[in-house]
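Subject: design request, 58 residues
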């Protein structure tokens, strides 16, 4: 019994999963907080790309 409890305490395989879940939660929270700024940024980037792409084909 003592050996299996020691092995259970030293097993850290689930720590990586918890870290990934926490990182995803932080990223989702940041996207929700800065949603309007990100939307404006992406729209500006796509409008810039489309206007410059039109000048390439002329």
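Subject: RE: design request

Done. Sequence follows.
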């Amino acid at each position: 019994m003592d050996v299996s409890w020691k092995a259970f305490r030293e097993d850290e395989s689930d720590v990586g999963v918890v870290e990934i879940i926490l990182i995803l939660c932080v990223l989702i929270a940041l996207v929700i907080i800065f949603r309007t700024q990100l939307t404006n940024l992406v729209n500006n980037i796509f409008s810039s790309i489309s206007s410059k792409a039109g000048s390439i084909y002329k």
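The chain has a mean pLDDT of 84.
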